[in-house]
Amino acid sequence: MRHFVAYHSADRMGYTAKEATPFGLYTNKNVSDPIGDVIWIITGSADKPKRYSLTSWFTVSDVSPADHTDFGFTLSGHEGKEFPRYQRLDQLPWFAAFLKRMANFSIGLTELRDQAIIDELRRVAAEAGCPQT
Prior knowledge:
Number of helices: 3
Distance between the termini: 11 Å
Helix content: 10-25%
Number of strands: 8
Order of helices and strands: EHEEEEEEHEH
């Protein structure tokens, strides 16, 4: 099982993360065999400075052509957790370095290869009552 991070941009999508499907995302990246992989969804506020929050995580169970003209694929699932209150990440000590490594989320869906980051996301989720096992 791999872990990926995806960023929901309300500016790009035209709707907020709250209005989005919590267990799905659009991407142009053709990920090899993502069934069973975990996707962590992060969004940013329109505030200056931007506030980043974890909104949901889900396990991919389906890959299909996107119904959005700007994207090629939809990854979706049925198992996961949507956070009743989005979990702020930008105030955590590890997040600034992570944001820099993710190029401010400009590179789209990205596989997480750093186990420490996966552990931190799992910790945040568990503390919010939405554990990822």
